[in-house]
């Protein structure tokens, strides 16, 4: 099979690899489209043995121990649990008592074939294109949808989104679709323009005056200074939803921030099985998820699209494998 390989410094190539063989109970999927996630930036720059693709959709070759059948069209969830603990049986595998883990059993999903845990399979809505399916069952919709479920916004409510990588753009799309007045902050002009196309009412650069304080701020950059800004600019009694990964320390004064101002600080990391019905409902209502995609290319032309992605000149990048 063909698969993408990250060489570091943003360089990628297609390589020939052995077809993966599913283990007992595992599922085998023929990937038709995979999407590049913002979290892959580090691997693309540093290089890995293979690739870190984790958003994909295609056709089921071997259903393994799942309820599906060969030939079914499926999307893939990147996170699975043990399937046995109380959180997993409640369809909350993100909080599996034994620890959530990767659904991948044969390496990254930027490839023609993938072996996955059977619990990763998601039935695609009838007629859905595989490219949209990769966005639909991956981070692009999963994270914003879970975020909306955890912290809903009202129609016409002002919502501030900080950082317009792929997940930030997804938050803009979902909140605007649900009627919020979205203001977005992002240094890259390309992404600001795309946010307007996805429904943002206004966009600005870091440091711009955003006017009155919003009740809800969604922080998607993961930068410590942006997190501090989000906590500072949110209205008293408001909520900051953290959606950008940050592994650095952030200095916060709990008394001034949480006690006296009564701010709630929470997060949305990925989505769980319990969120999938709400995601399907968004699709049925006409959420224009495909508008997030700015690069839809054959995998053979991945390099140019990934160069644009790393240069902040892209929304979602789709790689076609068939």
TrEMBL record:
Region (Disordered): 1-25
An annotated Gene Ontology molecular function: oxidoreductase activity
Stretches assigned to the Alcohol dehydrogenase-like C-terminal domain: 166-282
Chain ranges of the Alcohol dehydrogenase-like N-terminal domain: 23-125
Cofactors that this protein relies on: Zn(2+)
Keyword Zinc-finger: no
Superkingdom, taxonomy of origin: Bacteria
Oxidoreductase is among the record's keywords: yes
Record-linked Pfam families: ADH_N, ADH_zinc_N
Keywords: Oxidoreductase
PANTHER family assigned: L-THREONINE 3-DEHYDROGENASE
Protein name (database record): (R,R)-butanediol dehydrogenase / meso-butanediol dehydrogenase / diacetyl reductase
Gene source species: Jiangella alba
């Amino acid at each position: 099979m063909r698969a993408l390989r990250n060489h570091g410094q943003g360089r990628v190539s297609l390589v020939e690899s052995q077809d993966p063989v599913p283990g007992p109970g595992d599922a085998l999927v023929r990937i038709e489209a995979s999407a590049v996630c913002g979290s892959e930036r580090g691997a693309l720059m540093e290089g890995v043995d293979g690739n870190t693709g984790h958003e994909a959709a295609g056709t089921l070759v071997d259903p393994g121990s799942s309820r599906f059948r060969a030939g079914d069209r499926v999307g893939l969830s990147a996170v699975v649990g043990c399937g046995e603990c109380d959180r997993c049986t409640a369809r909350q595998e993100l909080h599996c008592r034994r620890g959530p883990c990767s659904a991948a059993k044969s390496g990254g999903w930027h490839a023609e074939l993938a072996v996955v845990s059977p619990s990763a399979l998601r039935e695609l809505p009838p007629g859905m294109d595989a490219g949209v399916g990769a966005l639909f069952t991956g981070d692009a919709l999963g994270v914003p949808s879970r975020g909306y479920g955890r912290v809903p916004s009202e129609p016409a409510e002002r919502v501030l989104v900080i950082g317009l990588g792929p997940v930030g753009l997804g938050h803009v799309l979902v909140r605007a679709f649900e009627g919020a007045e979205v203001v977005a902050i992002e240094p890259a002009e390309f992404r600001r323009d795309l946010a307007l196309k996805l429904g943002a009412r206004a966009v600005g650069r870091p440091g711009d005056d955003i006017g009155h304080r919003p009740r809800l701020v969604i922080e998607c950059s993961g930068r410590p200074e942006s997190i501090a800004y989000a906590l500072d600019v949110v209205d008293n009694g408001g909520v900051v939803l953290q959606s950008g990964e940050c592994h650095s320390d952030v200095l916060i004064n709990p008394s001034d921030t949480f006690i006296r101002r009564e701010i709630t600080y929470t997060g949305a990391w990925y989505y769980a099985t319990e969120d999938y019905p709400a995601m399907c409902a968004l699709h049925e209502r006409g959420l224009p998820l495909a508008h997030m995609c700015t690069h839809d290319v054959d995998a053979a032309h991945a390099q140019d699209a990934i160069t644009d992605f790393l240069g902040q000149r892209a929304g979602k990048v789709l790689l076609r494998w068939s």
